[in-house]
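TA notes, week 10

Several of you asked for a full example with nothing omitted. So below is the full record: structure tokens for the whole chain, then the designed sequence directly under it. When grading your own attempts, check the secondary structure regions first.
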């Protein structure tokens, strides 16, 4: 499983992680260990890029996917 997919799952399940992401997305993603490409994809909301990095079908992501979207 990719680090980005793990992180998305954590954001979905952990209120403290969502709060940290909402307060400072770059800091939260860096502390989790996401690569620059993973951070850029998540911040852009580019479902195709996120799908490629996670190995999950783009169709499974909610619309829209963006940093301000609560998971």
């Amino acid at each position: 499983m990719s680090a980005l997919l793990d992180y998305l799952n954590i954001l979905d399940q952990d209120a403290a992680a969502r709060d940290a992401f909402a307060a400072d997305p770059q800091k939260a993603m860096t502390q989790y260990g996401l690569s620059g490409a993973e951070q850029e994809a998540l911040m852009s909301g580019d479902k195709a890029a996120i799908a490629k990095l996670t190995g999950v079908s783009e169709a499974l992501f909610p619309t829209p996917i963006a940093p301000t979207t609560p998971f």
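The chain is about 65% helix and 0% strand. Use that as a sanity check on your answer.
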